[in-house]
Amino acid sequence: MKKIDVPILKNIVGEENISTDPADLFIYGSDSSVHSARPWVVVRPGDTQQVQQIMAYANQEKIPVVTRGGGSGMCGQTVPVQGGITLDMKRMNKILEINAPDVFCRVQPGVVDDDLNKALSPFGVFYPPTPASSRIATIGGEIGNNASGVRSVKYGATRDSVLGLKVVLADGSLVTLGARTRVEATGYQVHKLMVGSEGTLGVVVEATLSFVPIPKFRCLGMANFDRLEDAGTAIADIMASGVVPSMLELVDSVAIKAVNKTMDLGLPEVEAVLLYEADGMVKEAVDYEINTMQEVCKNNGGTGLTSSYDAKERAKIFLGRKKLFPALSKFSDALSSTSLADDMAVPYSKMAETAKMIHEIAARNNIIMTAYGHCGSGCMHTKILMAPNRQDQWESAKRAVAEIYEYVRSVKGTTSAEHGIGISKASAFKAEKNDSLKLMINMKKAFDPNNILNPGKLMDAHEDWVTATDLRYTVA
Amino acid sequence: MKKIDVPILKNIVGEENISTDPADLFIYGSDSSVHSARPWVVVRPGDTQQVQQIMAYANQEKIPVVTRGGGSGMCGQTVPVQGGITLDMKRMNKILEINAPDVFCRVQPGVVDDDLNKALSPFGVFYPPTPASSRIATIGGEIGNNASGVRSVKYGATRDSVLGLKVVLADGSLVTLGARTRVEATGYQVHKLMVGSEGTLGVVVEATLSFVPIPKFRCLGMANFDRLEDAGTAIADIMASGVVPSMLELVDSVAIKAVNKTMDLGLPEVEAVLLYEADGMVKEAVDYEINTMQEVCKNNGGTGLTSSYDAKERAKIFLGRKKLFPALSKFSDALSSTSLADDMAVPYSKMAETAKMIHEIAARNNIIMTAYGHCGSGCMHTKILMAPNRQDQWESAKRAVAEIYEYVRSVKGTTSAEHGIGISKASAFKAEKNDSLKLMINMKKAFDPNNILNPGKLMDAHEDWVTATDLRYTVA
């Protein structure tokens, strides 16, 4: 272990914002993934200058630095595989400016997604990238992973909303990237590169974000499909219909069963459910879009079609989808819901085939997997239900993950849609980006010559996630 | 001059695709800017392998390579300031795939923008980034500059439509970047960085682009403003109204006079004209958007309000804007219309002030300048009307350009909205990106250690455009 001088860090942020307490190190060593490791020290900076001082010190001493927001990452991005400093950014949680006439806001990275939207709401606008974890996910973490969420089909991902960034580089210097305007063509757009770089290129200390008007009308519809393939064709047909849904979600039979089992919603146990939403300022336009999608569903064998503009009714329709995660967790006492092949993106026409393939691969490997996702943006998610205390189940899961990403590459999909690479997807990432890894390694060196920023991730990652870190679940 | 072995290049692309003819070198040494220089040889590759071979040779011999599309760049991006090879990409002009169900197409870089849209149209979709030069601009050139155009306010810029790229790097190796899906979070998004890098990081040989449905309804409106400030307030109010226009254009009094003088359109000689368009699948929604914008214009003193859904009527309303360039060129026999402070982006609330400032700065420096632009995306353009055979007018223009960009920085605008940096904006670029230049230089080295890709541009550019190159206009 390299030497770390805790008093120097205390001097920068104050004693109360440092911890080496084993309980803290344990918590800060885990996120929402299966992975776990320990930082040597947790540091909670309060402003940009402190971040600069910490980075200058870490760079001089070549100490690893892992930047962390809400800790809701699903694949181990903030797990400090080489120890070092974990930089908890949650104290830097100020909304610095909401500029309605110029359609941007400036925020610190520790602002929680939902809090930003609460603050924007009186201006009649919202910040569209909204992961399911928006109650705890921070803007900084969302930038690190290029988070997107259910409305990405219409409003894009985090990268589309980031106009500019202030970033502390590995050596402690501060750079201002991007602009405040809708378009920019002023040389290298480094701020866009920072989005999705998983803390390996710099520490974001301020973000300039765009926002969009809150639509006056939102209508949510649902359709059941006896055959997964038919839901898949419906997805492709909707995306080719000229309609831009504000949401298009697929829920598979495993998820439906889990929800029914734990919540008693009485959902029909079909192969697939599609949820589709349209939004806008004019009801006639939303009507047209909902009707078009409903028609497509009907033409592809969709049944039990329902839709509503009413907020309460919409919440009821969405309840099953919303409660998917807890339902999967409670599915069985013996089985845990784990994120491993947690997300991927595939072309629309391959959505149903991908879900089917996931089920087949799971069955072949003696585990249970669910497939669901934001299909309108090509995004597919899974959860693995497995017995975490059985070594053979981990081996099965490992095989299944490898097979799934091999399939994804074969249909020209990509390893991550919105959860990032972290630890669990490193091997698939390397296989997919095989021909540009050398370039990315050179880029990383240009930003961080001492490799102190989140080392052991992306190009630098161990390809075997089982041996890369401890696992949060005890193996007997 | 470094040694160049023309027979080696002939061997790669064939004799008919090489030229060292002085007339060709002159033409290929100029673009739509005031700048000029000579390449040593023009090479027209026909496929990716040839590009790889050319780059491998150039890299070995450290010969500069400038990639060129339609030659419609406005600030000298493709002017080969250090000589070398000009790589004319126009032979690589195949549309490789139009995949309607999966909402992407794959094209070679030499495809002309209008040709792509002609090919997409039978599928009911269009590729939104459309610069005024779309009849000659190539997709590769648009990627190099992050081009956008009149509809960027609603549909974004080139970067927003680029899902993936194949790129030949400086050493001749080929990398596949990005994906084919609406969202992606698979490590560094290098394809987005390539967009706007002005040929300094690699040679694009294939692009995967997204497209959007052609709206069923388009309505274009116009309003006249006696006071520029009022048009400015109308722009900001429209952008804050919840409406997303598909076009929002400002035309200033200088431009109106030029159009009237050369075309006899009888436009009212007010201080500003706003053109606003809405589009969509449902007429009620388009009505609502047009009415909202019209109401905003009226409330801000707009007069002569008119609007139409009819294609012919719309063309008539747009005619003055469309013919702006030729009108400015023919404004006076003694004056040429030149692009120097050709574009910039500023916050919406500063639009009118910027236009006014441009007029003031021009008057102070004894030249005439027009201000117009795609205000809905914060984009402002100018043309300088000046006597190009007078040294003092060049000196005046130089001063005016410096003053304009100093003003742009003071209101937190950015040096380029969509035309890029090239030669004429290099000094402003360096001043704006002062704190990240070192980082960008390191990034460039990571991509191109021998600095052969478009050397002498961006961070590497001479800050004085008058001395950086020959000028296309003869100074007496």
UniProtKB/TrEMBL annotation, chains A, B:
Mind giving the lineage of the organism this protein is from?
Answer: Bacteria, Pseudomonadati, Thermodesulfobacteriota, Desulfobacteria, Desulfobacterales
Required co-factors: FAD
Q: Which PROSITE patterns match?
A: FAD_PCMH
* Keyword Flavoprotein carried by entry: yes
Coiled-coil spans are none
Where in this chain does the record put each FAD-binding PCMH-type domain?
A: 35-214
Keyword Zinc-finger assigned: no
Record-linked Pfam families: FAD-oxidase_C, FAD_binding_4
**Stored SUPFAM superfamilies:** FAD-binding/transporter-associated domain-like (SSF56176), FAD-linked oxidases, C-terminal domain (SSF55103)
Task: Supply the source organism for this entry.
Answer: Desulfocicer vacuolatum DSM 3385
Recorded hits in InterPro entries, A to Z, give: FAD-bd_oxidored_4_C, FAD-bd_PCMH, FAD-bd_PCMH-like_sf, FAD-bd_PCMH_sub2, FAD-linked_Oxase-like_C, FAD-linked_OxidoTrans_Type4, Oxid_FAD_bind_N, Vanillyl_alc_oxidase_C-sub2
Q: What is this protein called?
A: Glycolate oxidase
Q: Name one GO molecular function term.
A: FAD binding
Arranged from A to Z, the UniProt key words for this protein are:
FAD, Flavoprotein, Oxidoreductase
Specify the superkingdom.
Bacteria
